[in-house]
Design goal:
By secondary structure, the chain is of the alpha+beta class. The protein has helices at about 25-45, 50-65, 65-70, 75-95, and strands spanning about 5-10, 15-20. The protein has a two-stranded antiparallel sheet. The radius of gyration is 13 Å and the shape is globular. The N and C termini lie far apart (about 30 Å).
């Protein structure tokens, strides 16, 4: 199954992440990344003076409590949570 994964570069906040996804999931991942970046921008506008990790954390909390958004892209909540956890871990690794 690993050989069927395609590499995908995504930009969240001000960082680029290289992930591997199934080709049929690419559209859903890109749609989710778009929503995440829009929410980051929204939180940056509402809460001036915070750093990017704060904004990303706010979005993760918001996103994890919005199951209808995940459903609209056809991503099971468990898979979405795993993806968000991986992204958060990568951000933490970079910042530490």
């Amino acid at each position: 199954m690993v050989e069927s994964l395609m590499p995908l570069n995504i930009l969240i906040g001000d960082r680029t992440y290289r992930i591997k996804v199934l080709p049929e999931d690419e559209k859903a991942v890109r749609g989710n990344v778009k929503i995440i970046n829009e929410k980051i921008l929204e939180f940056r506008t509402q809460f001036a003076g915070k750093d990017m990790q704060d904004y990303i954390s706010m979005v993760l909390i918001w996103y994890a409590t919005q199951p209808k958004i995940a459903d609209s892209f056809g991503i099971p909540q468990v898979e979405l949570q795993e993806l968000l956890n991986k992204i958060e871990s990568q951000i933490d690794d970079v910042l530490i």
